Amino acid sequence: MLQAKSIVIAIEDYPPHTSSSNAEHRLLQDPVTKVFESLGYQVVYEYTSWARALKGVSSGKFDATFPWFENKDRRDDFILSDKLMTQKVVFFHRKDNGFDWQTDQDLASYTLGSVVDYTARDVLIEMGLKPFTGNTDSYVFQLLFKGRIDAYPATIETGQMRIDQVLPKGAAKELTYHNKPLFEQDMYLLFSKEKFKDSALPKKFNQKWNDYLRRKKPLEK
Questions:
Q1: HSE (CB half, 13 Å, CA atoms) of 198?
Q2: Which of 205, 191, 221 is nearest to 4 (CA)?
Q3: Would you give per-residue pLDDT tens digits along the chain (221 residues)?
Q4: pTM (predicted TM-score)
Q5: How far is CA 115 from CA 112, 133, 199, in A?
Q6: Torsion of CA 111, 116, 117, 118, to 10 degrees
Q7: Strand ranges for 123-174 from DSSP E
Q8: Cβ-contact 24, 16 below 8 angstroms
């Protein structure tokens, strides 16, 4: 067995993929942990906001963070792993507000929510829109439920779970999502470029991760 070293990974709850408290909501977190353990690393998770996670890895305070969509700044500022998974982002909205869209121009008539450092916010801004920006998706979902914004883009699984977690019982009956995706993209693990620029770890992680995806069985040290 390799002598264990520590790797500090900064994440926020992103059910069902990562969770600080629910072991059933670690569908991505658990295999990522096992990959690092198979490479001789003890994984330490730092649960924080996504914005702090991104800044902390960029500054070298943390070693890595996941899962993130790709954009030019992230390609420049981090070392990206191979693809972890693919996610579709759709607009959640109240059933009673008549939200519908097919073109960018349609969205201009709505008050849209977003979260700081989320890719969906960047996509909306690139479309020429000015979304309201909150610090957490929990807060923005509360605004959506109260009717203070018209729609909020989120991945389907996570959005549905967030609604159940942070809104009053029965709120899910009042909310739905639009079938047309805002976008569909791959998500990645981001390594600190400062710490791993000359390290073989990102390449080794990719090899083990792709092996896991092919075999879909527990990795052994």
A1: 0
A2: 221
A3: 445 699 999 999 999 999 999 999 999 999 999 999 999 999 999 999 999 999 999 999 999 999 999 998 999 999 999 999 999 999 999 999 999 999 999 999 999 999 998 999 999 999 999 999 999 999 999 999 999 999 999 999 999 999 998 999 989 999 999 999 999 999 999 999 999 999 999 999 999 999 999 887 555 44
A4: 0.84
A5: 11, 5, 32
A6: -40
A7: 132-134, 151-155
A8: yes
Determine the Cα–Cα distance for residues 17 and 151; give it in Å rounded to an integer: 23
| CA separation for the pair 102, 122 (Å, rounded) | 19
- Is 191 in contact with 79 (CB distance < 8 Å)? yes
Residue that is written with structure tokens 């899910």 in the block: 172
Distance CA 125, CA 112 (A): 11
3-state secondary structure of 190: strand
**Nearest of 87, 69, 91 to residue 182 by alpha carbon:** 91
Task: Return the number of other C-beta atoms located less than 10 Å from residue 60's C-beta.
Answer: 12
Yes or no: say if 57 and 51 are a contact pair by the CB < 8 Å rule. Answer: no
Beta carbons of 15 and 25 less than 8 angstroms apart: yes
